[in-house]
Amino acid sequence: MQAKREQWSGFAKTTQASHLVFLDESGVNIDMARRYGRGKGGRRVVDHAPLNTPQSTTILSSVRLDGEVAFTTFQGGTTRDKFLTYLKRPHKNPCKRQTLTE
Known about the structure:
Elements: H1 2-14, E1 21-28, E2 57-64, E3 69-75, H2 80-88
């Protein structure tokens, strides 16, 4: 881990901030049925909801210092192929890509 921090420190010192792209992955599921409830006087709450198990929606987005934003949405979780497809999309200001992960 220390070596990775040193690598990042060296990279950060020699890279212009305008060349950095910050990537975020978020997800949402619209299954809105309540799973728990509270009844008056400690009584048990009983209710019914249709069985609805919608697939999750994933949002991949990136932002640069100049405000350029790129995003995509798709059904299900992020796979290697979906992530690589997102990275290959043309952007307004292409830059050398270097992926740093912890």
